[in-house]
Every structure is written in structure tokens, then in C-alpha cells.
Specification:
- The complex is a heterodimer of chains A (about 180) and B (about 575).
- Chain A is built from 6 helices and 5 strands.
- With about 180 residues, chain A is α+β, with helices and mostly antiparallel strands.
- Chain A has a domain of about 100 residues: Alpha-Beta Plaits.
- The radius of gyration of chain A is 28 Å and the shape is elongated.
- The mean pLDDT of chain A is about 95.
- Chain B has about 575 residues and is α+β, with helices and mostly antiparallel strands.
- Chain B is built from 15 helices and 24 strands.
- In chain B, the strands form 7 sheets. In chain B, strands 1, 2, 5, 6, 7 and 8 form a 6-stranded mixed β-sheet that branches.
- The longest helix of chain B is centred in the N-terminal third of the chain and has 15 residues.
- Chain B starts with 19 loop residues before the first strand and ends in a 5-residue tail after the last strand.
- Classes of the chains: A alpha+beta (about 180), B alpha+beta (about 575).
- The interface between A and B is medium-sized, with 26 and 22 residues.
- The structure holds iron/sulfur cluster (2 copies) and FE2/S2 (inorganic) cluster (FES).
Chain lengths: ~180, ~575
């Protein structure tokens, strides 16, 4: 199909009106409210439900919630999580009746695809995808976050169920050692 | 008990007709023997409904039933409905108009594990009532269960989890506090007990009482408070305790050795053999990322049934030891770089062996090496006119599985002609030969000979000492040529057990460093010294050995399957 080139009108051939029209658009936006953000001085507030970096949490009493069940390690599609279980002689768990705690817990943030499966599968509500979206490191090793770092970044999770504490109380009430 | 001597279960396809009866399972007719051997005494006992169902290929969920244990019938998980042919006043079956016998359905269900079958019986495992019974039984089993799967070592292979998946409710209806029982009970040196998880099936009690003969466990208290415990003041400690961990359907009994080491779903399972004695129990090696986490018994009716001993089960840590030999070493002349790796060193060794005068070489090979490796050594020995022997390794046996002979392949060493009769008889002769100077080259595979009368002074007289081993010792330190070998878990091969059963094992983990399976480098040596033999693989090597050695006649690698094959003549 051939489209005929339209002949320009006299007004269009004047050229200046089009230039001025363009400047008018620029000027209008110049005085409008700004929509860009001064990143990184200024940071985006992420909406609730955003899936940022996965971190480990402690409960309000300062206990590590993870019991090293390794379900997140199993479910993680890109194999970003590596847990070293405590073994029979490992460090005692923060809550004695929870019996175990990971000896080491590593997440390779370069591998993580922020899918949230780990949070979904965790039976202890010990790992959550938080709001951090900009993870920076100078080397690959730095991007492997260890247990200490994950717990520090994760902070405290207000545990409403307190399963282990409840179990211990119930057992004590029946004269059993929890 | 009679382990492998028990009559083999008669196969349902070929029994004499009078000894079988026909039943229907969910409408499918199956022929089952009237009796089956009792798992403990071996005496014939009536066939049960659960056995008929299994023969028909129908799964019946069960906790307390175990094919190798006496029936207890206490968990009620196996409830099924059934019917029997109605009999008329003349004691003849009443027939329906279509000529088939009329079936009266029993008004009540029965436990399949303890109810004998009768001719013409019909068993129903898929009715709505059966489904509901399974759901209810499971709900009752779960009311006091602590639901601590995240910290339970059984998770992933737990029958309670599996049946909850199939028959369980998503929500608990139980609102009262659960009954709490002792946790983390130190039952014995190798077992931890969590009483809250126990579903009181008594499998462990029956195993240790009826199979091992150590009546160590029992239930105390009643009802919801029933608690499994060991005899007061006596630890649960016999050589078979860890089998209770395998048969416990839940995570009540767990192994201290495996405790919190790895979740079971990560473990790669490799069929293998236990190498701690001449019984050759079939095992499964559980490994992850080239680390071995546990051994478990693998069922083999002809060898170990479903069991293995604790001694063999826990004898695996040496495979992962940090001081494993990982570097191949040749003699290093002053100022000369060490020979780089296997090819030149094997060429050097074969050169020396080819030039050795007949009778000037001796070979000491461990009866822990595989049949194929011993066969290759025997070939070398024949070519070189070498004096050969193996080393006996005796301990105390027991009446169940543990053999007094702690070599896994003594029979193989005898049948390939490596071992003298009696085993070890040639060792003094070899020592004498070295002292007299007639033996100038010694090839040692997998033995520490300085403890066997071939002290450092004798080894120093040798012109060439070639040693292959796995862990460092006095002999490896004195070797001129050190060839790092593999543990059985790092290679494939076959052993011949004390009863003459040839069984194969598979590779579970990678060897470290320079280490190579012995059969690979021995094969190369044999090729270079004795000429090509026309086979390239382990399979080919085994088949060639079976053709060469009359004792192994008729066997093939493929024919061994995963259960092994018995030699025609006992070794
Ligand atoms: S968010 Fe997804 S990819 Fe990232 S650690 Fe969790 S499971 Fe793995
Ligand atoms: S400990 Fe295990 S095997 Fe023993 S009775 Fe309890 S559930 Fe059964
Ligand atoms: S399996 Fe039949 S009652 Fe337990």
C-alpha cells in the first residue's frame, strides 16, 4: 500500500509555531510535581507483600526460630540455601525442647530468585522475605549471607502461637520434663 | 532364630494345588498358599488376609504388622471388610442364580494382619467403610502425637506422615491438652527414645525379644499413658539395637549416630554390602555430596532378611577420614621431579614386574578386596610365579548375623587362589623368602604387613615394595610405590560371602584425590605384564572371571541382580 505524503499547510510551513508548541510542553512539566526519586539518597517504600531478600528471624524472646528442618533447602528452586545441621553434638537449641538449631545457615543471594517458597514451606515461621531489594557486595563470597548476618538482618518476629513454649508449659503441668 | 535357613516363602504361582486356596481381593481372584512359614519359628501358620492382599498387589496400610515379626494386631490400621461363602444346611455353598457362590458379608470388619484366610473368602479394602475406619484409626493415633516433624529424624520416611497424607484430616479436632510423656530418653548407647511419638505398635519389643532374644523393652502404664521403656536400670544394648530404628514406623526410636545429621530426603541411596564380616549383609548407603551419612539394611531373604548388626552399621566413618591416602607416589630420585601420576608410575611398575625373575615376586592381598581385584592379582601371580596370600581376620561371631570371620571376601580370596590354605600360611614363607633374598619384590594390597611378621627390617631388604591401601600405616610409609585405593563405597565390585553367595555393590561416593578403584589399576598392570585380556569394563572382567574360574562358573554380572547368586559348590 502506498500512502500519499500530505502537503503541509501554510501554517505548518511557518516552522516556529511547532517549536514553540514543543517548549510549552517542556515548560508545563517543569513546574509540575516531580515523579522521579533521588535514588539512592531517597528510597522507595515497598508495598506490603513485596518479596525482597529472605532473612531469618528471632522470636520476641530472642530465640532463633529455625529448627534446621531443611525444608527450605529442599524446596528452594535455585538451590540458594545451604544448611549445616547440628548433628548429635551441635550447639544446644535456644529453646531446649525444640532440640535443634542450624549450626550454619547460608543463603546465596546471587542465586536467590525471591520466589518466597522458603517462607511458604517453613513450618516454624522462621524465614521471611523482607523488604530489602538492593543487595550489594564487592565479591561473590560477600553475597553468601551466613546465619549470623541473616539473623541480624531479619530482626524480631512477633510470634503469636509460641508453639514450643506452649508445649513446655503443658508438659510441665503434667509433671513431665519438657 | 533361623535366618536364611528358614524355608523360603513358597511362590504362589507353583505350589501343589492341595496346599493353596483361592480368595478374592477387591474382586480379583488370587491363589494363596494355605500356610506360610512363621517368621520366627519357620513352622507353617495359616496365611492371613494381609498376606493375601499383598499377593494380589493390594496395599493395606499397617503399623504393627511386619513380615519378619510375630503378629501383634494392636494398631488396627489394617482393618478390612470381608465376606465368606454362605453354606446351606448340607454344608455346601449356596449358589446365586448365576452359579457363583453367595457371599455373606461379615457384619464387622477384621484386622487383615491376624485373620486367616478361608477358601472362597472375599476381602474388600476399598469400601467407604474401610476408608472411614482408616481415617478414624489414624485420627486416634494422632491425638496425643506431638506433631514435631520439623525436629524429627524420621520425617520423610515416617509411616505416620505417609498414612496421614493418604488417610488423614487436614485439621485436628482435638482441643484438650495432649498427654505428655518422656522425651529424649537415653535408652542405650546407640538409641534415643521419644515416648510422645511412639504409637505403641510393639514392633521394637517383638524384634528384640523374638529375633535377638534380648527381652529388653516393654510397655508400662495403661491407656493413653502407655509408655515404652527399657528394663529399669539396664541399657538397651545388644548388637542389633539399631534395627529397631528402622522398623519403628514413627520417629520414637532414633539413632544417636544419625541424630540431626541430615534430613533423609537429601540422601542418595546406593545398594551396597556391609564389609565388616563374612556374612555380607545387603545394605543401602545413604550419602549426600560425597559424604556418607548412614548404612541401612537392604532386604535379602538369602542373607540378612531385613536386619544388620550395629557393629557393621556404624563402621563407615573411616571412609571419610581426613588422613585418607589421596596421592600416588613413586620413588623420588634426588633432584628429580616425582613422576606425574598414574600412567608413568604404572608403566614403571609393570616394567619392573616384567623384568623380575620367576619366583622373586610375592603378593599379599587383603580378603577385603573384591573378587575381580583378587582375580587380577591371581592372574599377575600366575604370570610371575609369585607366592601369594591373604590375611585372616577373626573376631567373635554371634548366632544371628555377625560372622567370626571379619573379612568380607575370604571365600573370594580362597576361590581365586590368592589365599593359602589355611589363610595366612604363606606369610612366614614370604618373610623367609625376603630374609633369604629370593623374594625381591613385594606387592601388598590393603594390608598392614609390618604387624604380620614382615617388620621394617625385612621390608628394607626388598628391592621394590609396591603398596596399595586406603589409610596410611607403617607399610604405606615404607612403600616405594604407593597406589591410593578406594573404599567399597567408592567403587563397584563383588564379594563372595561365607555361604558362597556372590553379591555386587555399587558406587556411592567419589574417590578423593588420585585414588582410583584397585580393579582399574590392577587391570592395567595385568594388561601390561600379562598381555591384553579383551575386557574393558568391570562387567566384562567379572564375566571373564566366571568363565576362567570353575568355582564361579555360570555366573554373569547381569545375572547377579541386586540380590546376588549362590555358587554351586559351597566354598
Ligand atoms: S526466596 Fe526462593 S530462591 Fe530465594 S532462598 Fe527462598 S526459596 Fe530460595
Ligand atoms: S517405639 Fe516405635 S516400634 Fe516401638 S512400640 Fe513405639 S512406635 Fe512401635
Ligand atoms: S497392622 Fe494389623 S493391627 Fe496393626
Amino acid at each position: 500500500m502506498i500512502i500519499e505524503r500530505q502537503k503541509m499547510s501554510w501554517w505548518e510551513r511557518l516552522y516556529l509555531p511547532a517549536i514553540i508548541g514543543g517548549f510549552k510542553v517542556s515548560l508545563r512539566h517543569f513546574f509540575r510535581k516531580k515523579v522521579t526519586m533521588q535514588y539512592p539518597e531517597q528510597r522507595w517504600v515497598v508495598p506490603p507483600g513485596y518479596r525482597g531478600a529472605p532473612y531469618l528471624v528471632r522470636d520476641q524472646d530472642g530465640n532463633t526460630k529455625c529448627v534446621s528442618c531443611q525444608l527450605c533447602e529442599f524446596v528452594c528452586p535455585p538451590k540458594a540455601i545451604k544448611i549445616t545441621p547440628p548433628g548429635p553434638a551441635g550447639p544446644p537449641a535456644d529453646r531446649p525442647n525444640a532440640e535443634k538449631m542450624p549450626r550454619e545457615f547460608e543463603i546465596n543471594m546471587l542465586r536467590c530468585i525471591f520466589c518466597g517458597y522458603c517462607q511458604e514451606v517453613c513450618p516454624e515461621e522462621a524465614i521471611f522475605l523482607m523488604k530489602d531489594y538492593s543487595l550489594i557486595g564487592a565479591s561473590r563470597e560477600e553475597m553468601i549471607y551466613n546465619k549470623e548476618k541473616l539473623l541480624a538482618l531479619g530482626g524480631v518476629h512477633q510470634d503469636k502461637i509460641k508453639k514450643w513454649q506452649q508445649k513446655a508449659q503443658e508438659a510441665r503441668a503434667q509433671g513431665q520434663k519438657p | 532364630m533361623t535366618m536364611s535357613t528358614a524355608n523360603p516363602t513358597p511362590s504362589p504361582s507353583t505350589p501343589p494345588p492341595a496346599d493353596t486356596l483361592q480368595v478374592r481381593v477387591n474382586g480379583k481372584a488370587v491363589e494363596v498358599p494355605r500356610t506360610m512359614p512363621d517368621p520366627v519359628s519357620g513352622k507353617p501358620v495359616p496365611t492371613t488376609m494381609i498376606q493375601a492382599c499383598f499377593t494380589a498387589g493390594v496395599m493395606v496400610p499397617h503399623y504393627c504388622y511386619h513380615p519378619k515379626l510375630p503378629v501383634a494386631g494392636n494398631c488396627r490400621m489394617c482393618l478390612v471388610e470381608f465376606g465368606t461363602p454362605a453354606l446351606g444346611p448340607d454344608r455346601k455353598p449356596i449358589l446365586n442364580p448365576d452359579g457363583a457362590p453367595r457371599i455373606t458379608k461379615s457384619p464387622r470388619p477384621a484386622i487383615a494382619c491376624a485373620t486367616p484366610v478361608s477358601p472362597g473368602m472375599e476381602i474388600y479394602t476399598d469400601t467407604p467403610a474401610v476408608k472411614q475406619m482408616r481415617e478414624s484409626v489414624l485420627e486416634f493415633l494422632l491425638i496425643n502425637h506431638p506433631l514435631d516433624c520439623p525436629i524429627c529424624d524420621k520425617a520423610g520416611e515416617c509411616k505416620l506422615q505417609e498414612y496421614s497424607e493418604d488417610h488423614g484430616e487436614a485439621q485436628s479436632r482435638f482441643v484438650e491438652p495432649k498427654v505428655h510423656k518422656p522425651k529424649r530418653v537415653d535408652l542405650g548407647p546407640r538409641i534415643v527414645l521419644d515416648d510422645e511419638r511412639c504409637i505403641l505398635c510393639t514392633r521394637c519389643i517383638r524384634f528384640t525379644r523374638d529375633i535377638v532374644g534380648d527381652d529388653a523393652l516393654g510397655l508400662v502404664n495403661r491407656g493413653s499413658y502407655s509408655t515404652l521403656t527399657a528394663y529399669p536400670g539396664r541399657p538397651f544394648d545388644n548388637n542389633y539395637t539399631l534395627n529397631t530404628v528402622d522398623i519403628c514406623p514413627v520417629g520414637a526410636l532414633t539413632s544417636k549416630d544419625f541424630r540431626f545429621q541430615m534430613r533423609v530426603w537429601f540422601l542418595k541411596e546406593t545398594p551396597s554390602l556391609c564389609t565388616s564380616c563374612a556374612t555380607g549383609c545387603n545394605i543401602v548407603i545413604g550419602s549426600r555430596e560425597d559424604r556418607i551419612y548412614r548404612y541401612e539394611p537392604r532386604e535379602n531373604e538369602a542373607v540378612n532378611a531385613c536386619w544388620m548388626c550395629d557393629y557393621g552399621r556404624l563402621n563407615y566413618a573411616w571412609i571419610g577420614r581426613a588422613d585418607r591416602l589421596t596421592e600416588i607416589r613413586g620413588p623420588q630420585a634426588a633432584g628429580q621431579a616425582p613422576a606425574p601420576g598414574w600412567t608413568p608410575i604404572l608403566r614403571e611398575i609393570s616394567g619392573k614386574l616384567r623384568q623380575a625373575a620367576a619366583g622373586s615376586v610375592a603378593i599379599i592381598a587383603s580378603a577385603r578386596q573384591t573378587n575381580e581385584e583378587l582375580y587380577l592379582l591371581a592372574k599377575l601371580a600366575k604370570k610371575l610365579g609369585a607366592l601369594t596370600d591373604s590375611v585372616p581376620r577373626m573376631g567373635e561371631g554371634d548366632r544371628l548375623l555377625l560372622n567370626a570371620d571379619r573379612n568380607p571376601n575370604s571365600a573370594g580370596a580362597r576361590l581365586t587362589g590368592i589365599a593359602a590354605t589355611p589363610m595366612g600360611a604363606n606369610l612366614p614363607k614370604i618373610a623367609e623368602g625376603i630374609r633369604a633374598g629370593t623374594i625381591k619384590t613385594l606387592l601388598v594390597v590393603g594390608e598392614e604387613v609390618t604387624r604380620l611378621g614382615l617388620g621394617a627390617d625385612l621390608l628394607a631388604r626388598l628391592e621394590t615394595l609396591i603398596v596399595s591401601d586406603i589409610l596410611p600405616n607403617e607399610t604405606t610409609r615404607r612403600a616405594h610405590y604407593l597406589l591410593p585405593g578406594c573404599a567399597h563405597a567408592e567403587k563397584r565390585g563383588t564379594f563372595t560371602n561365607a555361604r558362597g553367595r556372590v553379591q555386587k555393590f555399587m558406587k556411592a561416593v567419589e574417590p578423593r584425590g588420585d585414588a582410583r578403584p584397585e580393579w582399574e589399576f590392577l587391570h592395567e598392570l595385568a594388561l601390561q605384564v600379562a598381555g591384553p585380556d579383551g575386557c574393558q569394563s568391570l562387567e566384562g572382567l567379572f564375566n571373564q572371571m566366571a568363565r576362567d574360574l570353575p568355582a564361579f562358573a555360570g555366573l554373569t554380572w547381569a545375572g547377579l541382580g541386586n540380590q546376588g547368586a549362590t555358587l554351586r559348590s559351597e566354598p
